[in-house]
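Appendix B. Raw example, untouched.
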Amino acid sequence: MATSVLPETTRALYPFKSRYFTLSDGIRIHYIDEGPGDGPPLIFFHGYPTWSFAYRALIVCYAAQGYRCLAMDHVGYGLSDKPTSRRYHTLRRHIYNAVEFIQGLGLRNVTLIMEDWGAAFALGYAIRYPENVRRLVIMNSWVFTHTSTFPLHPVVRLVATPGIGELLFGILNLAFPLGLQRWTARQLSPAVMMAYRAPFREARQRVALFQFPRMIGTHPNHPSTPLLREIEDGLSALRRVPTLLIWGADDPVFPPVLARHWKSKLPLADGPHLIPGARHYLTEDDPDALMQHLDTFLDKTETSEGPSAP
């Protein structure tokens, strides 16, 4: 999908040059790369059902501060290619897409900023290459299968049901009112909602919207469960990586108790910092508060020598 399909109102909110990285399987990942090319790299991993548009305010801010800001659209989202095969969307494939992207661009000493599904993909990379990870920023996400359990949100359970997801999110395109807007504290403007919907105009472009909920490791024999456990166990190798935990205090999907569980796995982390009134999408609910915490964290860790620093 070319950038020309984006509405003019979206281009005004998302004024970045589109770039593409071709994976080894021929699928193209869309990404943006803003700020000085030699600046410290910040890589933003979006969640469900959003795309790199979600990080627009942070990218403008930190690119202006001299950071190299990169945000990829996961395959099936945003302006990346959208395979029509349901089998494409597995946790293993999306982790290795992240690995291939970071290695293919030759990024070094990276700061990984993540939310929702983006955490599983980013941390899937991090546990494999901890020596290349300078910092972690973890927001409203979950990767746990055996040390923490919690009930799935009713909408997630509903969409994971065979046939129901295809109807609600594939045909009726309800991922945005049922997910994004429902789990955001403030009313999103028509222009912002249009921007989120724009890459999913046609039903054939929405496969990822109903397949991602089915990637959740809900039982021991689920294909994602071994990988999620690998990530969870691998967090011990990241304990000394400077980490910021920041959370929406009113998140209905991943409540703050999960933020505290992250802290138990990463006890040296800064936080968790709870943003009052914010729900699941911090970048939409309170980007200013998010950036205040991120500013402090980046300043405090800027003199760090890297992952081995205390």
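End of appendix B.
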